[in-house]
Design brief:
By secondary structure, the protein is of the alpha/beta class. The chain is about 45% helix and about 15% strand. The protein has a domain at about 1-170 and about 205-230: Rossmann fold. It contains eleven helices and twelve strands.
Length: about 325
């Protein structure tokens, strides 16, 4: 089978490319013209340049493909101009889905996020059926992914599109070259730049397990269904303690209330706008989202797809070692 992967040079996308090749599939990688190709350098893939906001480039890239994995997304917790994020995450998703449907590919796997799902107060653990609305979404990233998933679901419902939705939790591991917001946290904790923490929680999963989950969704997923691809639920304090142990450092012991961190995030965002820098070290949306524990269950994917995930310690260990090798202090 020949598969097109959008966002193939990114963190999850490149892991997926490797998993597809290991399963004997051929891969065409859709990447933007000036994108960093480091993650694809040792992978035997066919490159296609284009952009998900350019329908013509998607049509050309899909020709001859049997399946499409739409992984590309603008994943940032702070953006000075949100319009671009909606163009990529919502309009770009519609472009890819419709191009794949017009090309009559056998199967489409759409990479959503657990960010679109509802959360439960402790000790609750959410699943694919935990309700959520647009008003529950904190920040432009979550809102854009929620709107995109709604568009995808409507295509399945109204057009019988052969789309399977996967909702990765918090992937970590090697190849986080950008890095993602979680990757920045791991990198900072690895080098002792996380002196405190807030009371929150995440579901940590190895990026390679997420990639395998995508392949299983292609092979066994039911169109119209969503599958959480997660791992282990941990509080931020537990995550930082694991990272400290792996990196040979002392874990942070100071817990800050959310109300104290919020003014710091406001100041960091104001400075980022003034100085024209990249994403600030703390964001208002990130602090507000941290009021909820992002704890999820992958039981449905385990039952229907045969999905499994390794322990969070192993995933974090691979992430820490990768940052130590590739991003020196």
């Amino acid at each position: 089978m020949k598969a097109l992967v959008t966002g193939a040079n990114g963190f999850v996308g490149s892991a997926l490319v490797g998993a597809l090749l290991d399963r004997g599939h051929s891969v065409r990688a859709l990447i933007r013209t000036n994108s960093n190709r480091t993650n694809l350098e040792r992978l035997a893939v066919e490159l296609a340049t284009g952009d998900v906001t350019d329908r013509g480039s998607i049509d050309r890239a899909i020709r001859g493909c049997d399946a499409v994995f739409h992984v590309a997304a603008d994943y940032r917790l702070w953006v000075p101009e949100p319009e671009r994020m909606y163009r990529v995450n919502v309009d770009g998703t519609c472009n890819v889905m419709r191009a794949a449907m017009d090309a009559e590919v056998e199967r489409i796997v759409y990479t959503s996020s657990v960010a679109t799902l509802g959360c439960l107060p402790p000790p609750g653990i959410a699943n694919e059926n935990t309700p959520s609305t647009l008003s529950d979404m904190t920040g432009h990233y979550k809102r854009s992914k929620f709107l995109a998933e709604e568009k995808v679901a409507s295509l399945v419902r109204d057009k019988s599109a052969p789309i399977v939705i996967v909702n990765p939790s918090t992937p970590v591991g090697p190849g986080d070259i950008r890095p993602t917001p979680t990757g920045r946290m791991i990198r900072n904790a690895t080098y002792g730049r996380m002196p405190a923490y807030v009371d929150t929680g995440l579901n940590i999963v190895h990026v390679d397990d997420v990639a395998t989950g995508h392949c299983l969704a292609l092979e066994r997923g039911r169109p119209g269904e969503r599958y959480i691809l997660g791992g282990e639920n941990l509080t931020l304090q537990q995550i930082l303690a694991l990272i400290a142990r792996i990196a040979g450092r002392r874990p942070p012991r100071l817990r800050l209330p959310h109300g104290m961190v919020l003014p710091l995030a406001m100041g960091a965002e104001a400075w980022a706008r003034f100085a024209g820098t990249q994403e600030p070290f703390a964001t208002v949306d990130g602090v507000r989202a941290a009021r909820k524990r992002m704890f999820f269950s992958s039981e449905k994917a385990e039952r229907e797809l045969g999905y499994t995930a390794r322990p969070a310690h192993d995933a974090l260990c691979d992430a820490v070692r990768w940052f130590q090798r590739h991003v020196p202090n």
